[in-house]
Design goal:
The protein has 519 residues and is an alpha+beta fold. The chain is 24% helix and 22% strand. The chain has 13 helices and 19 strands. The strands form 4 sheets. Strands 1, 8, 9, 10, 11, 12, 13, 14, 15, 16 and 17 form an 11-stranded mixed β-sheet that branches. The protein has a 4-stranded antiparallel β-sheet with strand order 4-5-7-6, covered by helices on one side. Helix 11 runs antiparallel to helix 12 and helix 12 runs antiparallel to helix 13.
């Protein structure tokens, strides 16, 4: 039996995900001043940038809303500041055989409906995710072959091949644990069925989720009486609401709003390096973008330096490829592409491209700056001889057509470590031939072979080399245009206490989140 050693599953990205403002965010005691006092009768409002979809199904992005709301919890958790996988609903884990990982369930935990957390209930919850019609990106039957309750306190996760990253997968919000009652109806019901510090009590569809304190939380006293999470897709609105005090925490602040917030009274802006890249997705399965020369021409036509300087006002850097240069698996072969209109025109001519129809860019409205980014891309591509039209859509409205391959180009952004805190989740889901989130509709046997090898490689340095090789293939094939590397930017009222920014956007409301007593 191989025991769990934390050093064996430590990810070398603590520097990448350096947090700006740990502990109390705003209202921190300065030298010679009194420590702010939390008022446990207070409630707060959180503005989130996306609403839940798919009837709260945990295999969908709805799981992220339940997690940041302080409802949904997982067996393990990823501590971004430490760069480690740490215990949550499981207290420890061991790799009992090359294919088996055993997780010891924390004793004394109750679901919010009063039933006890057991190995059997955990196995049932995880098997529900495995059986989902649309597989979860980080936890599905391709990477997990079985989940069983070994005894009253032990859950065994079995994989089809040896996998050193199972603890990372169990930290994915898609592997969240709900009470058996949550799965009894036609649709999943998280209300009163979580284990977290906050109990969801009501929702206004696509608008808000109301939460109350869990008075029997296993993790200690909950400092807030409750909260409301609002789903505000417009970034300028999120910024305005935290500035006026209508919201206490606003997530994903657009660049255009930073200057006013940074000078506003009563507001603190938190920034952290983030594995998030604004990306122009190209549909590799649809003409004319199924031609690598056409895709390369689009990349050559774009002026990423001007884009970063103008639209992003210097708050982002031109992307060198699929990874940010600070990531330990980025490799050293790539440089940020330079605009070369002559090369773009030559490639288009060689590919036999004719502007038979304008190519359409879908710009996701949740990112306020994407309207301007799309306009810049449109002008750049026009100069190369590629006419472009722009359509603004909310992501939820665009996703079905994009996943089905019924689109040309999509302007969106993706956090590479949000599925699991290792690139294997992103590289598998987004770019393998059978990837569950392969928006690019890309398929390459050499790429799939490298990713499969990386998934079973125990040595982190060797695994990182394979990730770099995979990234090189994506760049050589011009699968997408990776535009700029962004920061995670949140804004918080200064009377909010105990808030720690999570660059992976999973944890916002916790037992320690508080608000100071009214002055």
């Amino acid at each position: 039996m191989r025991p769990f050693h934390r050093s064996r599953i430590t990810l070398g990205v603590a520097a990448l995900l350096t947090l700006s403002g740990c502990g109390f965010t705003g209202g921190q005691a300065q030298q010679g001043t009194a420590t702010p006092t939390a008022d446990t009768n207070q409630r707060i409002v959180v503005d989130n940038f996306r609403a839940p979809v798919a009837n709260w199904a945990l295999e969908s992005d709805a799981a992220y809303v339940l997690s940041l709301s302080g409802c949904l919890e997982t067996l393990t958790s990823y501590d971004a500041a430490k760069g480690e996988v740490v215990p949550m609903l499981a207290t420890e884990w061991t790799q009992s055989s090359p294919l088996d990982w055993d997780f010891t369930i924390r004793e004394g935990v109750k679901f919010q409906d009063g039933t006890a957390l057991t190995a059997e209930s955990v196995a049932g919850a995880l098997n529900h995710v495995l059986a989902a019609t649309v597989p979860a990106r980080a936890f599905n039957s391709k990477m997990v072959s079985a989940v069983t309750a070994v005894d009253a306190n032990t859950v065994r996760v079995t994989t089809p091949t040896e996998s050193p990253l199972v603890p990372y997968r169990l930290a994915s919000v898609n592997a969240g644990i709900l009470a058996p009652a949550a799965y009894a109806g036609e649709n999943l019901d998280p209300f009163g069925n979580c284990t977290g510090p906050f109990v969801p009590t009501s929702e206004v569809s696509q608008q808000s989720l109301t939460l109350e304190r869990n008075g029997d939380y296993w993790g200690g006293d909950v400092q807030l009486a409750g909260a409301e999470v609002r789903f505000i897709t417009n970034g300028a609105t999120r910024a305005a609401q935290v500035q006026t005090g209508e919201a206490d925490i606003s997530l994903s602040i657009p660049v255009a709003s930073l200057a006013s917030l940074e000078s506003a009274d009563g507001v603190k802006v938190n920034k952290a390096d983030s594995p998030r890249t604004a990306t122009l997705y190209l549909n590799n399965g649809r003409e004319p973008l199924n031609n690598v020369d056409v895709r390369t021409a689009i990349r050559d036509a774009l002026d990423l330096e001007s884009l970063a300087a103008s639209v992003y006002e210097g708050a982002a850097i031109p992307a060198k490829g699929v990874f940010a240069p600070s990531e330990p698996w980025a490799g050293d072969k790539q440089e940020a592409p330079k605009q070369d209109l002559d090369a773009a025109k030559k490639l288009l001519a060689g590919a036999g491209y004719t502007a038979a129809r304008p190519l359409e860019i879908i710009a996701i409205v949740e990112r306020a700056e994407f309207a301007d980014v799309a306009a810049v891309i449109q002008e750049n591509l026009k100069a190369a001889g590629i006419p472009v039209s722009i359509q603004a859509k909310e992501y939820a409205a665009a996703e079905p057509a994009v996943l089905a391959g019924n689109y040309d180009m999509l302007l969106s952004q993706r956090n590479r470590l949000i599925d699991i805190a290792d690139p294997i989740g992103f590289l598998t889901a987004d770019y393998t031939c059978t990837g569950a989130y392969n928006l690019s509709h890309f398929c390459n046997a050499d790429y799939d072979r490298i990713v499969a090898e990386a998934a079973k490689t125990v040595d982190a340095n060797e695994r990182y080399k394979l990730y770099a090789d995979a990234g090189n293939i994506l760049a050589e094939q011009a699968v997408n245009v990776w535009l700029v590397n962004e920061q995670a930017t949140d804004a918080v009222r200064t009377d909010v206490l105990g808030y720690v920014q999570d660059p992976l956007s999973r944890y916002v409301l916790t037992a320690k989140t508080a608000k100071s007593a009214s002055q």
